[in-house]
Amino acid sequence: MSTKSTTMPSGGKKKRKKPSHKKSELDSALDQVGDESAAAAMKEFQDLLGEAKGDTRELVRQNAEELERRLVLLKKRQIDKEDFDHFVENQKRILRVFVDGQPAQAQERAEKLTLRVLEIAARVAIALI
Amino acid sequence: MNSTLVSRNVFLYAAAIFIASCGTATFTKTGSDVTIESLRSFHLAFIDEFAVPGKKFNATAFNAKVNEGNAKFQQAIADEKFTARRPVLVDLKAQFDADAAHLKSKASRGKITPALASEMKKDVNKIYDHALGR
């Protein structure tokens, strides 16, 4: 059972952590994608994922890290695209349950950022496999 | 003098009703926490039983368990007295429905992987934690 806290201590305000310069396993995999038409989506995805991973709000950060881990599982063929799509839908549902229990304004940006990352993830997943 | 006494009694009755209603709300919420934990256990056991790599898919057993789950979730939604929690229970049922559909599709084709089972259980724990406000 998870023991994480889901509080958002900044009350909706966001402080950015300094992005890490070390390339993640996913970054390396994305860099290898040769499809130029997907390049813009990749760039936007990497930027948004980096922003979400550096977010002080735990839910946003956890969702981004989970998404990244699952993209790596997809790349390694430990899960397939159907599984990946199922997990993206799960993350949206989990976000909805979380947001339903919170003051709306404080969570608005968390919801927008996370949903945007999840939407682009589907396009990135296709390019990865 | 009499009106002061009446006012005091009205105030005391109102305070007693307020305190009693707080106690009832706490009790109701605690009761629904127990229900949600019970649904979580059922959901995780369902994944443990059917998300097993290499296990032959038993459609009869699977459908029976899904029907049992549907009945449990529907009962929980109908019994929930804390109205703010009903949409959450509906979302938990949606999660169960989605997991059941995905497992049926994968298990019937022998495409369950260890990572799939493990990731599914992570999501189940996460959504139930949020449902409980953790």
Q: Could you provide a short overview of the structure?
A:
The complex is a heterodimer of chains A (129) and B (134). With 129 residues, chain A is mostly helical. Chain A has helices at residues 25-31, 39-53, 58-75, 81-100, 104-128.
Protein described:
The complex is a heterodimer of chains A (129) and B (134). Chain A has 129 residues and is mainly alpha-helical. Chain A is 66% helix and 0% strand. Chain A has one domain. The N and C termini of chain A lie far apart (31 Å). Residues 1-19 of chain A have low confidence and may be disordered. Chain B has 134 residues and is an all-alpha fold. Chain B has helices spanning 2-50, 59-79, 86-107, 114-131. Chain B is elongated, with a radius of gyration of 22 Å. Chain B starts with a helix and ends with a helix. Classes of the chains: A mainly alpha (129), B mainly alpha (134). Chains A and B meet through helix 3 and helix 4 of A and helix 3 and helix 4 of B.
Largest protein-protein interface: A-B, 25 and 26 residues
Q: What's the helix count of chain B?
A: 4
* DSSP, total strands of chain B: 0
Characterize the overall form of chain B.
Answer: elongated
Spatial separation of the terminal alpha carbons of chain B: 52 Å
Tell me the major beta sheet of chain B: none
Structural domain tally of chain B: 1
Low-confidence stretches of chain B: 19-27
Return the structural class of chain A. Answer: mainly alpha
Strand content of chain B: under 5%
Low-confidence stretches of chain A: 1-19
- H and E string of chain B: HHHH
The residue fraction in helices of chain A comes out at 55-70%
Q: Can you give the mean pLDDT of chain B?
A: 86
Note the total helix count of chain A: 5
Rg of chain A, Å, rounded: 15 Å
Radius of gyration of chain B: 22 Å
Structural class category of chain B: mainly alpha
Mean pLDDT of chain A: 75
Distance between the termini of chain A: 31 Å
